[in-house]
Amino acid sequence: MNDKVFTKPIKKHFEFDEEVAAVFDDMLKRSVPFYGESQKITKFFALKSIKEESIVYDLGSSTASLLISIAKDLAVDARLIGLDNSEAMLEQARKKAQAFGVSIELENADILEYDYKDADLFISNFTLQFIRPLVREELVKKIYDSLKSDGIFIFSEKVISHHSKLNKDLIECYYDYKKEQGYSEYEIVQKREALENVLVPYSEDENIKMAKNCGFKHCEVIFRWANFATFIAIK
């Protein structure tokens, strides 16, 4: 289903409700540059890190596209657990998992409060940016503490630049991309307003510093397009 959510005037801040869930896959493909490529590289490193009886968590798993893709190519017996606090997203994910015939676990959960078991891998696709900055580092520390030795955390985020002109140009570049995907100027403005104070991005350096502050021995970008980046942090 095509994303038409912002073709009409907005009445509330952005929410992952039934309307968004129904078009979310299309929204991602058209709103996140090279989303498919960032998912491929995430899957590559995920499959290399998953061992027999591994536990894998996908935080903010939405419609579970990545977990389903990983499950289809998984050569060992492991638990793939998707956590999301949107029941509408989880319902879409359950339907997709059933259609593809894959075994993944999906739970309605608060990722800040969840009781994680020892895991080899955490994944977070454009989720941290929706966590309030006051508790964002607290979540990353919880992820670090729940990882086994040499475990990895792969996360993708929208990023900003602290150079004002460069940041403005990056935003313009991104909006040009969205127009190429068929979004109108009106839709772009509507979504920007809906996300105001809901999506709070960090810079590339701030994301890396946060990971290292939480104990990760190494963190770097493995994929980037303008103001979208995928990071890998190693315990």
TrEMBL record:
Annotated ranges, domain Methyltransferase: 56-151
Keywords of this entry: Methyltransferase, S-adenosyl-L-methionine, Transferase
GO biological process assignments: methylation; tRNA wobble uridine modification
Pfam families membership: Methyltransf_25
Reactions the enzyme catalyzes: prephenate + S-adenosyl-L-methionine = carboxy-S-adenosyl-L-methionine + 3-phenylpyruvate + H2O
UniProt keyword Methyltransferase, yes or no: yes
SUPFAM superfamilies membership: S-adenosyl-L-methionine-dependent methyltransferases
Position of the signal peptide: none
Residues that bind S-adenosyl-L-methionine: 35, 60-62, 84-85, 110-111, 125, 192
Enzyme Commission no: 2.1.3.-
Family to which the UniProt record says this protein belongs: Belongs to the class I-like SAM-binding methyltransferase superfamily. Cx-SAM synthase family.
Record's function text: Catalyzes the conversion of S-adenosyl-L-methionine (SAM) to carboxy-S-adenosyl-L-methionine (Cx-SAM).
Protein name: Carboxy-S-adenosyl-L-methionine synthase
Organism: Sulfurimonas hongkongensis
